[in-house]
Amino acid sequence: MSRAGTAAAGPVRVLVADDEPMIRAGVRAVLATDPGIEVVAEAADGHEAVELVRAHRPHVAVLDVRMPRTNGIDAAAEIRRTLPDTGVVMLTTFGEDDYILRALGAGAAGFLIKSGEPEELLAGVRAVADGAAYLSPKVAARVVAHLASSGAGALAERRDAARERVAGLTPREREVLAHLGGGLSNGQIARRLHLVEGTVKAHVSSVLARLGVDNRAAAAVVAHEAGILPPPPPEQR
């Protein structure tokens, strides 16, 4: 089952992986407040997480970054390689900025700070289940700060490189990229741009290919680096 059809097919099935039992219990408790989300399995390390994803085929896997045996980043890469219909949300803590950037390359679509608000966890799981990317505001701020810490010259180079990559997009693809930067799903983008969802899906695939990235979250980072901001919702204009 594709993640895009989860809303119509029943509850969002979630796996939670963290080596700390209290963290797993807390994540499960937050997710249990949403009747549309069901935790189907828990894992104490990345290796077990991959095995349980294969067994249960959840819509979303919520993975801690640092876990024994197999860490969250390697587990995310294996899940995305072998079970692409399962979206991955990474749980991080402050001071793990390098891990966040590495997780982008592993195919994770959601990034949350463990100390964040419970509503962010629910929103992130829902967004990734719907095929969108989700960067919590705190994570996005940390990524930007981390990139900036490498020096003004390096940051300017990243911005220039991002703008150069974006320059190859068509006007419509730039619109789609802006909405990807805002974390919208294909269905939400279709409604905003008055397109059919299949057309948006084709545009998204083209955008990822032209930018040379593997997933929507990485495309969202390029959008932010290039200064392409999502337009406000119609009711806020």
TrEMBL record:
CDD domains attached here? LuxR_C_like, REC_NarL-like
Q: Which residues form a coiled coil?
A: none
So where does this one cross the membrane? none
Top-level taxon: Bacteria
- HTH luxR-type domain sequence ranges: 162-227
Modified sites of kind 4-aspartylphosphate? 64
Q: Does the keyword DNA-binding apply?
A: yes
The segment(s) forming the Response regulatory domain are 13-129
Q: Which GO terms describe its biological process?
A: phosphorelay signal transduction system; regulation of DNA-templated transcription
- Which one of the record's GO molecular function terms can you name? DNA binding
Q: Which UniProt keywords apply?
A: DNA-binding, Phosphoprotein, Transcription, Transcription regulation
User: Which Pfam families does UniProt cross-reference here?
Assistant: GerE, Response_reg
InterPro entries for the chain: CheY-like_superfamily, NreC/VraR/RcsB-like_REC, Sig_transdc_resp-reg_C-effctor, Sig_transdc_resp-reg_receiver, Tscrpt_reg_LuxR_C, WalR-like
Keyword Phosphoprotein assigned: yes
Q: Name the SMART domains on file.
A: HTH_LUXR (SM00421), REC (SM00448)
**Could you tell me which PANTHER family the record lists for this protein?**
TRANSCRIPTIONAL REGULATORY PROTEIN NARL-RELATED, TWO-COMPONENT RESPONSE REGULATOR
**Name of the protein this chain belongs to:** Two-component system response regulator
